[in-house]
Amino acid sequence: MREAVLESLRSVNDPELHRDLVSLGMIERIDVAQLEHAAGSAITVKVNLTTPACPLKATIERDVRAAVLGVPGVETVSVEFGAQVRMPATPPLPGVKNVLLIGSGKGGVGKSSVAVNIACALAQSGAAVGLMDADVYGPSVAHMLGQGSAKLVGNAERKMVPLEAHGIRFISMANLSPAGQALVWRGPMLHSAIQQFLKDAAWGNLDYLIVDLPPGTGDVQLSLTQSVQVTGAVIVTTPQDVALIDAARAIDMFRKASVPVLGIIENMSYFVAPDTGIVYDLFGRGGAAKLGNYPLLGEVPLDTDVRRDADEGTPAVISHPDAAASKALRQIAENLAGRVSVQTLAELPMAQLV
Ligand SMILES: Nc1ncnc2c1ncn2[C@@H]1O[C@H](COP(=O)(O)OP(=O)(O)OP(=O)(O)O)[C@@H](O)[C@H]1O
Fold first, then answer.
1. Which end of the chain, N or C, is more open, meaning fewer C-beta atoms within 10 Å of its C-beta?
2. Is the Cβ–Cβ distance between 206 and 130 less than 8 Å?
């Protein structure tokens, strides 16, 4: 019976990876139990997803159930899920499976807010997540996580120990330099700071290390793409033309550095009036589509909760999980995790999948 069930699962494709669950090594266990009062068997299938934030869990469950119910003699099916983010062919750092860059063309489009919320949403789903604030000139991650005045310390191996908040580990220049003081650094100093944040920090084991870049196309971006094997970059933009022009430059920079652009996030996409429910497209919702053929990971509405929660140090996906913006941000985190799986598995030789 177990063999017949396994065979039936060869017909179920992961909808994003376009390969069947068996050859992807996603079937962790098949249990067969004989039912007492029925002729057939009760089957339990455990599917090991490629990310705990899988956006297509419901589809996979439905398809597994249908395939297994089609096997003669099967009476009931229950589907269990586990998840393990796959180690890519070339891990970017020891213990770190993916480095994801969050960039923008313009400042103030909400890149840090999006990065912080995505990091928290991925951690909420069960992933091990780190957040590195590479926006050295305007570090806001620590403040958005309620840790603006915390100080970074070293461990016995003289490695920087990331701070922790809301289930993620993070490092920000704000936790090294005195508050309110401007950083006046040239390229080489920035390069060595970025190296230290990446390589002289005790990140531990991470599924995703998210990097909040400074806006634009400068030294930090260059330094990062040259220092580690990056899984991909995400561009945050607002929908109006002036933001899109700069976003296109950022995309071009990643293309030239051979960093895959995993998708675009349109922030401040629209506004829903809380009293009337009327939707206002303040900046021209849908503008991000003009950036070309890149997946749109999602649209985040302008929402007071996002701003207020960032100022108060608890990201919206945690303090207001039911707000429309939080739902959009969670969906974006899942879509991004899905894109990362596609990217990693496309590069892994078939033999390493099972
Ligand atoms: N969807 C949103 N709704 C309401 N406010 C938002 C939203 N996204 C961001 N904001 C607010 O907009 C301001 C700018 O956001 P943020 O600092 O994340 O932008 P940024 O692109 O990282 O800026 P910079 O690159 O200049 O540091 C913040 O006050 C933030 O709380």
1. C
2. yes
